[in-house]
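re: ur question from earlier - yeah i can do the single chain one, its not a big deal. heres the input i used so u can compare w yours
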Amino acid sequence: MNSRCRIALAIVLIALPACRIPDWQIWRMEERPPSVYEVERIRNVAYFNGPEADSFRHRVDLFLPKGKTDYPVVVLVHGGAWLVGDNRCCGLYSSVGEFLASQGIGAVLPNYRLSPRAKHPEHIKDLARAFAWTKQHIGDHGGDPQQMFLVGHSAGGHLVALLATDEQYLKAHGCSSADIRGVVGVSGVYEIPAGPTEVELGGNSPRSFRLDEVAPLRGSIAASDGNAPKKSGLPVRVNIFGPIFGNDPRARQAASPIHHVRPGLPPFLFLTAEKDLPLLPDMADEMHRRLLLHGCESRLLKIDNRNHSSVMYNAITADDPAAHAILQFVRASK
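and the output i got, formated as tokens:
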């Protein structure tokens, strides 16, 4: 297998959960969970109208608890390796937004520009715009702009953590990290390596890329056999992050939330999956550790019987452990 094929396969494995087929709702909740509130849906609202505005990427979908006022609001940021995906993802992220609204929590799902056409920091600039728009306008829909939370999955986990820790992007829109009540990173990326990444294709080591780390998108996975002998896969050294962040080590460090941890940040909750993509659980561990060392509030939770995809997309019922943790986190911060 040549290096180009290896790079393509690695990127596909990361990006697969956030494929985009515009407006096709392939996935949805099979049975609507017991709802406290009916859900009001407002789709395709522009959060940026400047001369370079994108008619799709600079839009948000809103899922709101009908009849409720002064409710907390989650800005839910999609994944897709900064390369693919959107805020609906064929109904997957939309289902999470619907669930949150049914539980009395408003959900704002932004799109943002993607690489390789847009490179860092354009993705995070878009998220800052979406956050500022939400803070300014959510009160018009009954939400409380003083109770705003960030939740991000995969690449979205990187973006929400960076927005909360590197305040320059919020300050550009008259906001600050004090406007964020809490941050939830779900299988996120918290450090951009300085150079190429060494992983394995196949095998069962902590550095292995495997299909069961991204499929199924919903449902449970087989429990890991902790006694199984470790098998190495095909070693691969790939520049996964080059198309997004470039190759300057200093720029990559500046794009890494872990290097912006400081005292006074909002509370964090990190969720990882039993069968997550390689490197991500270790990143969450280290980010969590550094936050605690700086006196910040942080909690780390591994979700059993889930992989990189299903840990997010299963969060659509109150008895799902990831959904329960997110609900508890938001409600405890009132």
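The radius of gyration is 19 Å. not sure if urs matches, ping me
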